[in-house]
Structures are given as C-alpha cells and as structure tokens.
Amino acid sequence: MTEAGVAGGQKDERDPSELTPEAAAAELERLAAVLGRANAAYHTHDAPEISDAEYDALKRRNAAIEAAFPDLKRADSPTDQVGAAPASGFQKVRHRVRMLSLGNAFDDADVADFDRSVRRYLGREAALGYTAEPKIDGLSLSLRYEGGALVEAATRGDGAEGENVTRNARTIGDIPGTLRDAPEVLEVRGEVYMSHADFEALNARQAEAGQKTFANPRNAAAGSLRQLDAEITAARPLRFFAYAWGEVSAPLAETQMGAIERLGALGFVTNPLTRLCEGIEEMLAVYRAIEAQRATLGYDIDGVVYKVNDLGLQGRLGFRSTTPRWAIAHKFPAELAWTRLEAIDIQVGRTGALSPVARLQPVTVGGVVVSNATLHNEDYIAGRDATGAPIRDGKDIRVGDWVQVYRAGDVIPKVADVDLSRRPGGAVPYVFPETCPDCGSEAVREPGDAVRRCTGGLICPAQAVEKLKHFVSRAAFDIEGLGAKQVEQFHGDGWIREPADIFTLEARYGPGNLTELKNREGWGAKSAENLFDAIEERRTIPLNRVIFALGIRHVGEAAAGLLAQHYGTWKAFEAAVTAAEVGRGPEWEDLIAIDGVGQVMAASLVTSMQQEAERASIDRLIAELEVTEVRRPDTEGSPVAGKTVVFTGTLERMTRAEAKARAEALGAKVAGSVSAKTDLLVAGPGAGSKAKKAAELGIETIDEDGWFRLIGAE
C-alpha cells in the first residue's frame, strides 16, 4: 500500500443495520476514497496494492450500506465506477459500448441471492440457464473488427474510454488479424494474460539482463501490453481468451454459450472450462470443479463468472450504472499473513476525518507486497466495536505487535488479529489523538459517529490538499499533468490554495514568468506549456463533473450525475440550491424528489452551497469556467423524453426496477415522490397516497397497460 492508498476516513465495522445515517455516510465516504485509489493502482498503474478479494469485499460492504441507506449514495460511489482513467502515453479510445465490471459473490448464499434477484426482476419462478466460466486474472481488452479486419484494440480504462493499443495487440498470436464470415462490425472482448511458465521464463530473462522483474503474471501482462514500443510487446509471451462482445452489426447467436462457440469458430481462443448450468446446484458444482483445478491450470484465475445464457433475457435485465444484472463473479477466498506493526500514523482526509494507518514490516499477501494497512478507527485499535462490544476477543493493537493482515475483507489490507504471545514487553496501549496532527485544531467525535474529525476546516492544510486532490481526480476535472504529487507541491509553495487558483496559474506563472515553473525539479518549458494547455482545456466542462469536483460531503459521482440531469445548467442548479431551505419549501421538495437524492445528501449540498466562505470559493471557480450541460442520451421520438415520471402501486407486467430502467432509457426522469413538477403517474393496483396527491395536483395518471401503449411496447 502507498500512504495515499489508505486515506479516506476510518472504517466502521458495524452491520449496516446498526449504523446511524451519520456513521453510514462517513463509512461510504471512506469506501469511495479507498476504492478510487485501488482502481487507479490496478487499472492505470498496473501495480495493485490490494487483492481482488479484498477489493470485492469492500465493494460489497459499500453496496450493503447503500442498500440500507439509499438516500446516502454518493456521486463518487464505487457502485458507479469501472476501472480508472487511461494512463498517459497512448491515444484515447471511446468505447461504443461501455466495458463494465461485474458484481461479486463470495459464498454460496451470494450466488443464491443473485439467482433470486434475476428471477425476481424477470418475474420468473422456474430455474434459469447460466454459463459458468473461469474468471481470468489479466487485462481486459476490446478488439474492433470492420469488414473482418482488426482496426482497433483498446484497454478498458474507466469503462467509457481506454487506451489505443492496436499495434501491440497485433503482436499477440491468439488475436486474429482478419476474420472470415464475421459480422460487418464486431467488437470482441476478452482478457490478455500470461501463463505461469511464460511468466517464470520472462522473469528469468529480465533478471539475466539486469532488468526489473515482475511481481506476478497479471502485472507482467499489463506492462507488456502497454509498451510504447510494440517490438517489446511482440517479444513478450502474451495470450488472449475471448469471452464477450461489444458493438455488433448482427447478433452472434441467441445464447451466451452459442455466442462463445461462434467466437471460437471465428478463430478466437475461448476457455474450454466454460459450462452450461441449470440452476444453483449446477452452478456451484462447476465452481468447485474449477476451484479444484486452479493450481494446475497454468494461468491465474480468481473466481468463476456466471452469466444468464438466454441473450434475450440478458437484454431485458440490462445494466446498473457499472454492472450487468445478468452476470456475477463468484470469487475464490483470499489469503492471510503475519508481520510486525512498526508504527501507527494518522492521516487527515478532505472532510477532516482522522484515519489511523498501520505501517508494517513489508509482507507478501496474495502476490502483493503490503507495507501499510488500515486500522479503521480508534475503537478498532482498542479492540471494541462502535457499541463498545469486544472484537478480536478484546485484544487491542499496539506498536511492535505481530499482526495478521487480512486481504479478503477489504480493498485496503486490514489488521485482523494480534498474536499476544509475541507482544514486546514494553508495548503500551495506543492513545488516539484528540487534536489534528496537521493544524492542531481539536478533533471531535460526534455522537454515533465512528470517525473523529478535525474542526480546522479551511485553515487545515491537510483538508485543503485532499480537497484539491479530489478536485483534479479522474471523475472530476482530471487535468493531465496535475495529479496528487503536483497538487501537494504547488500547495506547499503557496501557488494553489483553492480550485480557482488552478485556472489563474498561467496568468501568475505562465508565459511572462515561465521560468519559475519550468526551472523547478521535474519540469521544463514543454511540460509547463503542456500543463497550461491541459488546464485551459478543462475550462469547458460538463455540469456533473463540476458538482462532483466540489467535494461536498455525501455528493458522489452518481449523485452529481443525477443532479446535473435534473437541473440541466449550472445557473438552474445554483439558483435552486441557493434558494432551498433544509426541510421545507418548493426547492427543497424538488431536490429530494430526485430519485437517488435523500435528505442527508440534500442537506449537505444545501448547507455547503450556502456557507459563506465555501460559496465564495465556488463562485471564484465558476467565474473561470464554461459549464456545459451533460450530454443526454439520444431519445428522439420518445414520448416521455424530458418528462418526470413516478411509478406507484403493484406493477404486474414488469418489476419496478425494470420500469425505472426502461423509462430512463427513453429519456424520462424517474422520481420517487409526486410533486407539482411531476408530468405523469403510472399507477398499478394498490396505489395510495401518491395517486391521491396526483389527483389533487391534476397530474395525468395512467395504468400499466397505458404506459406500455404510450412507449410503444405493446
């Protein structure tokens, strides 16, 4: 782990049902921060800091808290993120069909829940057919063929945009250069990997040549594919398994298995362990059979992927923001390791949260060298949960202890246990600080909150720096050449104190005074000019990115998108939030009527936008920008595009989730409550207060059959 990798707050290990809204929001904030950093380490830098199992378990906890507190879902929720921003050095490629990640299952009960959710969504009682295939631990790649010729290859990147690695992909023997009898347009997706034998041989050659060796086959494969010199890639023993597709001009088959067989017939290597399953028992039997072969396969896998076999049903199930509803990855268990705790440091996040970090004697866990781990919060260190009940049998954690690092339960490695038999004689209980280590302000722990927070606010340099790092992060302004390291440097020198300062940097240190920047270590005239160009490029930016970049507590990436879609322009958003009164008034009612925006998030947004100093900083920023509307889906001809729709009562021909997804795909805004701004109420049997309110407001109300007639789905 890097130091930055553990920032983002202290973990609250209580069950979601036991959390207060404040504690849940704090935990979601921490999860968003650590998962974002883990994404960047894995997808952009090819240097994972945590195991896949840890990452998956942390995403699962995030989802559980969001399910318990749907109003608290953040705009930068890990639920809505795929991968990380493309690395520099390659041209960027916009995926025609997004490359999404998979939801995860960790035990048999999770798989059963997945199957139930699929059948419930479809309204089916009977067992469904699924495919089951090994989940390859490699690098995702999309191959585009036009007229049978390979014209483009791109990494997944952040799911929407990846890196153009076409020249490198052409050097991989498993990737055909041309196809016969293929659709006119075909995007084949799969995984680039390296076998164990090839990996060992490559490392031997690297060591013999005095060059850097690779930590594991996944890193070796990713690093090889991303070589700027394609001749280096050609010399590396890369392989490719095909298992999916993106844009196609004609269907490959009617089933998942049929499509895989078609890819094999076109000349792609597909995994021979892929099986058809009927129901849960067969799915789990295939999982156990593949797990038993894991050590002898000759390549790395980290689980089994289940997919609904019927492609028509896949189409009905559709997608969440970043994952398909029709597939899930059943992960293998991860590993444990013991090492010495050398120190406990405190990091301060952008919202003031004090996060304890364990500095460890480096130890390898699951192929990754771990030197840092989260200690969550002061209660966890003391051996108790937030209610005071003992954890780890009440054993506290002290500097000098031998501790167990557990990489399956969190994205960030965590200290799971202590070996008291090896505790040094002079070890003393850790005293958690009550003042901020960066600014000296009092660090307060509010009732019901697991996190202690610095009260310094704008005077705290740690909070200021973390907010600036968030501002330039991937989902926010994403300014090329201005990352966390540069933010720290420029803030320390007094060049950047708030976001608006970024956009006046050139005026202060640019052409007329370029030497001050270009003479700095690591900078030259060209890099300075590139930075100014990148900043200038970001003066025009979509509304959703601006809202997210402000770093308002509880407003994550997904919520920023919802707000941007609802208000459309910065002027409308700013006016509404400025006029809103927490808990009352039409602007407040309109805000919380947005499906996915709850009371806690709305209150945080309104309070922040109306706080004098913070608002002044925001106004200075907006004066430097041209904020554009969010690009909306093409809904030409849709009878409900731009309308606000509410569903109520029992829906008999579709599930509520399916109704919402269909309406949004047609350009409608789906709200959770009826207000004067509602255009249409779709009411099934049992409609109650919403139907009554709609009648009082004179809002058009139709039944489910009327809805299907309206959208032309009869």
Structural class of the helix and strand makeup?
alpha+beta
CATH topology of the largest domain: D-amino Acid Aminotransferase, Chain A, domain 1
Low-confidence stretches: 1-8, 83-88
Mean pLDDT: 85
| CATH homologous superfamily classification of the largest domain | DNA ligase/mRNA capping enzyme
Indicate the percent of residues in helices: 25-40%
Rg is 26 Å
Which key terms come to mind for this protein?
single chain; 714 residues; alpha+beta; OB fold (Dihydrolipoamide Acetyltransferase, E2P); D-amino Acid Aminotransferase, Chain A, domain 1; DNA polymerase, domain 1; 5 domains; five-stranded mixed β-sheet; five-stranded antiparallel β-sheet; 26 helices; 24 strands; 35% helix; disordered N terminus
Describe the structure.
The protein has 714 residues and is an alpha+beta fold. The protein folds into five domains: 3-81 and 334-422, Beta Barrel (OB fold (Dihydrolipoamide Acetyltransferase, E2P)), CATH 2.40.50; 94-331, D-amino Acid Aminotransferase, Chain A, domain 1 (2-Layer Sandwich), CATH 3.30.470; 460-497 and 504-538, DNA polymerase, domain 1 (Orthogonal Bundle); 542-628, Orthogonal Bundle (DNA polymerase, domain 1); 644-710, Rossmann fold (3-Layer(aba) Sandwich), CATH 3.40.50. It is 35% helix and 19% strand. It has 26 helices and 24 strands. The strands form seven sheets. A five-stranded mixed beta sheet has the order 2-11-10-3-9, with helices on both faces. The chain has a five-stranded antiparallel beta sheet with strand order 14-13-12-15-16. Strand 17 and strand 18 form a beta hairpin. The radius of gyration is 26 Å and the shape is globular. The protein starts with 20 loop residues before the first helix and ends with a helix. Residues 1-8 and 83-88 have low confidence and may be disordered.
